[in-house]
Design goal:
Order of helices and strands: HHHHH
Largest sheet: none
CATH superfamily: Cytochrome c oxidase, subunit III, four-helix bundle
Structural class: mainly alpha
Distance between the termini: 67 Å
CATH topology: Four Helix Bundle (Hemerythrin (Met), subunit A)
Helix content: over 70%
Number of strands: 0
Shape: elongated
Radius of gyration: 21 Å
Number of domains: 1
Length: 194
């Protein structure tokens, strides 16, 4: 019978990277925050005196933009792993441009809502829409910062597909896909729950 050496470190195959695990834990806290906001939205809407209004058309456009951006960041990662430098840089730049466009269209949507009389003071329903979508925009800005850093590294560092660079880019991809999925959920919630 073989005795295990207690001084030998344990090794696990296919274990999750600690940075990725930490990112997923942060996703849980973000989901809880938005879950609390949506619960408050539901409770407040049932209390009466709730202004119903349609979401601005710019929110539909921004939804398409963030979906396209998510596809681009995925293709950028695949290009990086496949050692296709020019397509990696092009898709990364496209993801950044589409992410910035998402924020621009969100802002235009806010202007449209404000012009229609839906502001922070008129009714709590408008305040909730501004708060929920505004917090999401802040998370998107964090993702844009990460994509910007990845893009700067793509142009300044030699194109070498090291494990460290793969995991960093994977973190950016996971975060960006998360804010994309989160937006789809929030958009559908605000669109259909009245």
């Amino acid at each position: 019978m073989e005795v295990a050496d207690i001084n030998k470190p344990l090794t696990f195959r296919n274990r999750i990277h600690p940075w990725l695990f930490a990112l997923w834990i942060s996703f849980a806290s973000i989901i809880m925050m938005f879950g609390a906001l949506m619960s408050a939205y539901i409770v407040k809407s049932a209390a009466g005196n709730w202004l119903e209004f349609g979401l601005p058309s710019q929110f539909y456009i921004s939804t398409g933009l963030i979906l396209s951006s998510s596809v681009c960041i995925h293709l950028a990662y695949k290009s990086f792993v496949g050692k296709r430098e020019s397509s990696f840089k092009a898709f990364l730049f496209a993801a950044l441009a589409l992410g910035i466009s998402f924020i621009v269209f969100q802002y235009l949507g806010y202007q449209n809502m404000f012009a229609a009389g839906v502001d922070l003071k008129a009714n709590v329903s408008g305040s909730f829409v501004y708060l929920i979508t505004g917090l999401h925009v802040l998370h998107v800005m964090g993702g844009i910062t990460a994509i910007t850093v990845a893009l700067i590294n793509a142009f300044l560092l030699p194109f070498i597909t090291t494990e460290k660079r793969k995991i960093r880019l994977k973190l950016v991809c996971h975060y960006w896909h998360f804010v994309d999925i989160l937006w789809i959920y929030l958009f559908c919630f605000l669109l259909f729950y009245k």
